[in-house]
């Protein structure tokens, strides 16, 4: 699998842009007018529009729906707290939680990245018991994701607590894409050196075909 194909598995360029756009719009509007409500409603509106566009084009909506849900929670927090930092907090907690989850999953030997990518490679969870080389690669990749996410939020949370909310917003936008690209790159490096996946879907289909042939001859 190429780096581009692997990046597509996590939403690709379009999915990344769609997740960045509401937050970018929020911080741009807030930077100029300091109006939390206007900024929040604008971010929520553009998130909804992005989902509608995907639905109209009959595109995959998984990443768009997850994005609009995250924006919706941020909008609710911003309106409830009356603070721009309220818009950022849910996403920061979620991202830090992902960092912890990726790290712990690697340490306990059940790497989360293998769970996510297993169906993409048609191997499901076969890597756990039948392909130790891929399990090792998934473990290294999950640990990389975890440490990158934790490092990102180790930078952001002090600014959330003690810094300026506008600076925090722009830093969040700036750190949206680079850590993900770095994590995907490490994933590609580790998986490129790993044994190929076991296509359990093909195995199952072959078993079904053999069973059907056996019954037809009976």
Note the quaternary state here: single chain
Outline type: elongated
Taken in chain order, the helices and strands follow as HHHHHHHHHH
Number of strand segments: 0
InterPro entries: UCP010219
Pfam families: DUF3159
Protein name: DUF3159 domain-containing protein
Keywords: Membrane, Transmembrane, Transmembrane helix
Please, could you describe this protein's structure?
It comes from Streptomyces bambusae. Keywords: Membrane, Transmembrane, Transmembrane helix. Pfam families: DUF3159. The chain crosses the membrane at residues 12-32, 38-56, 63-80, 92-121, 142-162, 168-191. There is one protein chain. This protein is an all-alpha fold and 218 residues long. 80% of the residues lie in helices and 0% in strands. It has ten helices and no strands.
Which terms would index this structure?
218 residues; mainly alpha; 80% helix; elongated; UCP010219
């Amino acid at each position: 699998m190429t780096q581009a194909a692997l990046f597509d598995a996590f939403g690709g360029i379009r999915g990344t842009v769609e997740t960045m756009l509401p937050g970018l719009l929020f911080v741009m509007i807030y930077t100029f007018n300091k109006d939390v409500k206007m900024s929040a409603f604008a971010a929520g509106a553009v998130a909804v529009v992005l989902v509608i566009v995907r639905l109209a084009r009959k595109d995959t909506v998984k990443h768009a729906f997850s994005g609009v849900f995250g924006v919706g929670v941020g909008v609710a927090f911003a309106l409830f707290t009356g603070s721009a930092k309220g818009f950022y907090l849910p996403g920061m907690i979620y991202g830090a939680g992902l960092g912890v989850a990726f790290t712990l999953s690697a340490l306990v030997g059940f790497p989360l990245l293998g769970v996510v990518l297993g169906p993409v490679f048609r191997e499901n969870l076969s890597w756990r018991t039948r392909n130790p080389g891929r399990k090792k690669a998934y473990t290294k990749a999950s640990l990389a994701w975890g440490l990158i996410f934790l490092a990102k939020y180790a930078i952001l949370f002090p600014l959330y607590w003690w810094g300026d909310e506008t600076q925090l917003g722009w830093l969040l936008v700036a750190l949206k894409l680079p850590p993900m690209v770095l994590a995907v790159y490490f994933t590609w490096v580790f998986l490129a050196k790993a044994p190929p996946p076991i296509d359990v879907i093909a195995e199952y289909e072959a078993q079904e075909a053999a069973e059907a042939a056996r019954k037809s001859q009976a």
